[in-house]
Automatic annotation (TrEMBL):
Coiled coil: none annotated. Residues 1-32 are annotated as: Disordered. Gene3D superfamilies: 3.30.300.20. Residues 1-14 have a biased composition (Polar residues). This is Osmotically inducible protein OsmC. Pfam families: OsmC. Residues 17-32 have a biased composition (Low complexity). It comes from Brachybacterium fresconis.
Length: 145
């Protein structure tokens, strides 16, 4: 029987978009609060603040690693390790979030390259975050170590 789990986060914002700032808080885990501002979103390398795209990338990389690990285990080839990352492209002015590049490197015993790529692609297509982001181009670079 399906069961719904609710996760929460919140943001408080002060001021206008270009000069304002805010704080995003992870509510469910209570792991912390993070400063956010437009500069972190619009300029690469802004230190000390985060952006919706960075948070989305973290969510996608995590979801993908979990889905891929599960698919590998269901295949009878559980991974020794899975390292994943996500690069989220944000087009300022038009387009918004235009793409996500997932990269994964995994150590898996007794698995050939073709099956590895098939399972990697399946995880990309079917992890819940990928499903939620179907309107965005998602690419995958998968390396069997």
């Amino acid at each position: 029987m399906p069961r719904t789990v609710i996760s929460t986060a919140s943001t408080t914002w002060q001021g206008d978009l270009p000069s304002g700032n805010g704080t995003t808080t992870l509510g469910t885990s209570q792991l912390g609060s993070f400063p956010v501002n437009w500069k972190a979103r619009a300029e690469e390398g802004e230190k000390g603040t985060t952006s919706p795209e960075e948070l989305l990338g973290a969510a996608h990389a995590t979801c993908y690693a979990m889905a891929f690990s599960n698919g590998l285990a269901e295949n009878g080839t559980p991974p020794t390790s899975v390292d994943s990352s996500a690069k989220v492209s944000f087009n300022i002015g038009e387009g918004g979030i235009t793409g996500i590049e997932l990269t994964v490197k995994a150590v898996v015993e007794d698995l050939d390259e073709a099956d590895f790529q098939r399972l990697a692609e399946d995880a990309k297509q079917n992890c819940p975050v990928s499903q939620a982001l179907k309107g965005v181009d998602i690419t995958l670079n998968a390396t069997l170590a």
